[in-house]
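Page 37, continued from 36.
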C-alpha cells in the first residue's frame, strides 16, 4: 500500500510543515502523517508570526528556503516592526495573520509539492530494529517504512486540557491527544517530562465596544518577512489595547481555589514569559492592571484573540471577570481559555543535527523538545528536515553556529543546557546579536543554504543585488562631501551641532539620530543617488556603516571563539580515561557527547580548566 519513504514527518504543525518541505526541496520523498488534514499549520494560540527575536527567526527560515515567511506575507492582516526606539540589533518584525488563510496557504503549498505525500491517522509508535528507526506504526496497525522519522508532535503527546476542575484528554481544543509514542520512547531509554502552556478565551468581536480602546495600527508602508517576491500588504486591520483592573482581579481571585495551577493538578512547568492572567495576578500582586492586546483573527471573521488573558480558571469566572474589562462589558465568549499539559523529551538527548542519540535516524523538532512558539518550532523543523535528508545521503549535518543565526543559538542552548520550562527565544540569549539582525538574515544564511543544496536561487540572486548595492552606497557615503549650507538646518532640527566646514557624509551619518533618509530629503544629489536602490538595501547598508566599528569588533571575537568550534571531539571519546577532568565534567561530557570543544565549553558544569585539559588531549 505504501512505498518506502525517505522521511516520515509525524505531525502537521509548524515544525512538521517546515521539516516536510525542507527535505522535499532537497529531493527526499516525504510522508507527512497527521491526525487531521484540516488542521495542518493551524495557529493553535495567537494569530501572529514574529515578535522580539522570533521575527529574526522567521527571516532566517526564509533565508534558508523555508516557507513560514512566504505564508505569513500572503496571509497577514497587519505588520509592525517592534523596538524601533532601540538599536537595529533589537528591531523585530511581527505580523498579525488571518488564521484560516494561513493554514490554507500552508496546506496548498504542501499539496503542490510533488515530493510530499500525506496520511491522515494517529501514529502510535515507531518501528525500531537494532537501535535504528525504519518507519512508524499507526492506530490501525499499519506499518509504513522509511529511512528516517521526524517527530513533531507539539502538545499532543498525552495532552490534557485543564479548565477549572475539569480535565479533558486532548491535544488542543476539540482534538484528541496522541498516545503510545511516549511510552515506547521511555521504554527505549528516553527521559520524558511534562510541560504546560495555555491560551486565552476567544471572543465575539461584534460584542466588543472598540471605541473606548486604544487603537494600535500597523506600520505604513507595511514591511514583509520573505526575501522572495511576495505581495505587499496595502490595507491593514488595527489591533486594540485595553487593560484589566482591580475589579477584574478580584473576580478572578474567587476562582483560585479551583485553579489547576494553584491546586497542584498541573504538574508541568508553564512558560515564564507568557504567564496566565491568574499567574500574573499572583506573581505581580503590586500591579493594579495588566495590558491586553485585542487581536483580530482574520479579515472576515468576527473572532477575536484576547492576548494577555490566558487562563485555566472555570469558564464562568473567566466570563464574569472579562465583562469588567473596559470595552468587554457586553462581550460573549466563543470558547474559554484553558491550560494544556503534555509530554516532552529533554533536548540534551539530541545531537547537533536534532537526531536522537539513542535511536539512529530518529529526529525530534518543536515542542517535543521543550520549546514554545510557532517560530522556534518551525526553525527546528527546517533543520531536522535538512539533516534527515543529509543523513540518508551520508552528508555531514548542517549546523549553524551561535554567531551565524538565532536558529544556531536556539539549538545550541537546547542540546547543551536542556530546559526546565518552555524555551522561548529572546534577543538577550544571543551574545552576537549585532551580527544577527533581521535585516541581514539573507546575506548571512542564503549562501550557506545554497552550499547545502537548498532551493534558494531566487533568494541568492537578490543577495548578490543587495551586496552590490551595499558596496555602491558605502563608496558614495564615504566619498560624498557635504557643505554646511546643505545639511545645517537638518542638524539643528535634530539638536546636533552645525558644520564648520565641508565634511564627508560618512562622518555626519555617525551622529545620533542621523539617517541616509535625512540626507536624501535635504540634498538632491543624495536623493537622486539613493533612489536607484530598494529601501531595504539602503537601510541595511546604513546599519553596516553606522555600526561598522562594533560589527568589526564582534567579528574578531567570533573568530577567536570559532577556533574552539573547529576543534572536533568524537562520540566514542572515553572521558573517564582523560586525566585532569573534574568528575562533573566527565559525567556531563559522557552524557552529552559534544561535537566540538566550543560546544563542550557551553555545557553547564564544564569549567575553563576542563576545556584546557580537553585541548591538551586533542593535541592543541
Amino acid at each position: 500500500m505504501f512505498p518506502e519513504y525517505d522521511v516520515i514527518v509525524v505531525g502537521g504543525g509548524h515544525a512538521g510543515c517546515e521539516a516536510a518541505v525542507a527535505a522535499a526541496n532537497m529531493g527526499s520523498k516525504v510522508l507527512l502523517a497527521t491526525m487531521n488534514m484540516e488542521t495542518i499549520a493551524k495557529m493553535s494560540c495567537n494569530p501572529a508570526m514574529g515578535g522580539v527575536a522570533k521575527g529574526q527567526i522567521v527571516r532566517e527560515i526564509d533565508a534558508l528556503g523555508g516557507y513560514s515567511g512566504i505564508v505569513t506575507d500572503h496571509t497577514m492582516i497587519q505588520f509592525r516592526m517592534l523596538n524601533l526606539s532601540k538599536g537595529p540589533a533589537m528591531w523585530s518584525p511581527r505580523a498579525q495573520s488571518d488564521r484560516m488563510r494561513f493554514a490554507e496557504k500552508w496546506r496548498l503549498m504542501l499539496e503542490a509539492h510533488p515530493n510530499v505525500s500525506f496520511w491522515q491517522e494517529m501514529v502510535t509508535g515507531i518501528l525500531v530494529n537494532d537501535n535504528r528507526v525504519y518507519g512508524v506504526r499507526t492506530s490501525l496497525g499499519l506499518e509504513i517504512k522509511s529511512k528516517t522519522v521526524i517527530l513533531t508532535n507539539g502538545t499532543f503527546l498525552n495532552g490534557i486540557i485543564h479548565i477549572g476542575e475539569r480535565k479533558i484528554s486532548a491535544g488542543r481544543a476539540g482534538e484528541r491527544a496522541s498516545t503510545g509514542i511516549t511510552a515506547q520512547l521511555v521504554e527505549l531509554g528516553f527521559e520524558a517530562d511534562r510541560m504546560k502552556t495555555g491560551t486565552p478565551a476567544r471572543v465575539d468581536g461584534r460584542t466588543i465596544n472598540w471605541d473606548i480602546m486604544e487603537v494600535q495600527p500597523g506600520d505604513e508602508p507595511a514591511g514583509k518577512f520573505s526575501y522572495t517576491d511576495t505581495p505587499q500588504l496595502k490595507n491593514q486591520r488595527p489591533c486594540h489595547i485595553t487593560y484589566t483592573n482591580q475589579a477584574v482581579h478580584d473576580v478572578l481571585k474567587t476562582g483560585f481555589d479551583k485553579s489547576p495551577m494553584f491546586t497542584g493538578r498541573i504538574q508541568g512547568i508553564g512558560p515564564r514569559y507568557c504567564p496566565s492572567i491568574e499567574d500574573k495576578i499572583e506573581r505581580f500582586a503590586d500591579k493594579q492592571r495588566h495590558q491586553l492586546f485585542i487581536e483580530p483573527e482574520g479579515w472576515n471573521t468576527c473572532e477575536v484573540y484576547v492576548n494577555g488573558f490566558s487562563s485555566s480558571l472555570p469558564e464562568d469566572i473567566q466570563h464574569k471577570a472579562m465583562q469588567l474589562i473596559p470595552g468587554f462589558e457586553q462581550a460573549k465568549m466563543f470558547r474559554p481559555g484553558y491550560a494544556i499539559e503534555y509530554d516532552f523529551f529533554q533536548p540534551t538527548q539530541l545531537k547537533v543535527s536534532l537526531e536522537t542519540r539513542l535511536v539512529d535516524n530518529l529526529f525530534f523538532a518543536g515542542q517535543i523538545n521543550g520549546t514554545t512558539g510557532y517560530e522556534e518550532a518551525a526553525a527546528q523543523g527546517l533543520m531536522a528536515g535538512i539533516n534527515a535528508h543529509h543523513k540518508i545521503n551520508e552528508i555531514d549535518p548542517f549546523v549553524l553556529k551561535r554567531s551565524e543565526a538565532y536558529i544556531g543559538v536556539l539549538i545550541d542552548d537546547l542540546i547543551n543546557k536542556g530546559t526546565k520550562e518552555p524555551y522561548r527565544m529572546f534577543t538577550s540569549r544571543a551574545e552576537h546579536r549585532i551580527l544577527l539582525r533581521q535585516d541581514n538574515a539573507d546575506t548571512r544564511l542564503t549562501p550557506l543554504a545554497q552550499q547545502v543544496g537548498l532551493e534558494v536561487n531566487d533568494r541568492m540572486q537578490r543577495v548578490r543585488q543587495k551586496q552590490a548595492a551595499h558596496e555602491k552606497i558605502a563608496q558614495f557615503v564615504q566619498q560624498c562631501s557635504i557643505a554646511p549650507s546643505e545639511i545645517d538646518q537638518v542638524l539643528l532640527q535634530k539638536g546636533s551641532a552645525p558644520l564648520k566646514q565641508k565634511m564627508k557624509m560618512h562622518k555626519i551619518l555617525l551622529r545620533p539620530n542621523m539617517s541616509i533618509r535625512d540626507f536624501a530629503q535635504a540634498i538632491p544629489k543624495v536623493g537622486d543617488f539613493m533612489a536607484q536602490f530598494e529601501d531595504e538595501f539602503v537601510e541595511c547598508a546604513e546599519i553596516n556603516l553606522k555600526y561598522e566599528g562594533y560589527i568589526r569588533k564582534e567579528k574578531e571575537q567570533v573568530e577567536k571563539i570559532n577556533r574552539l568550534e573547529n576543534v572536533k571531539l568524537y562520540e566514542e571519546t572515553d572521558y573517564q580515561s582523560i586525566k585532569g577532568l573534574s568528575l562533573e565534567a566527565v559525567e556531563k561530557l559522557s552524557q552529552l557527547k559534544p561535537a566540538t570543544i566550543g560546544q563542550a565549553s557551553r555545557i553547564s558544569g564544564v569549567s575553563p580548566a576542563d576545556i584546557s585539559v580537553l585541548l591538551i588531549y586533542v593535541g592543541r
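The domain at 457-552 is CATH 1.10.10.1800 (Arc Repressor Mutant, subunit A). Flag for discussion at group meeting. The chain has three domains: 1-455, 457-552, 566-617.
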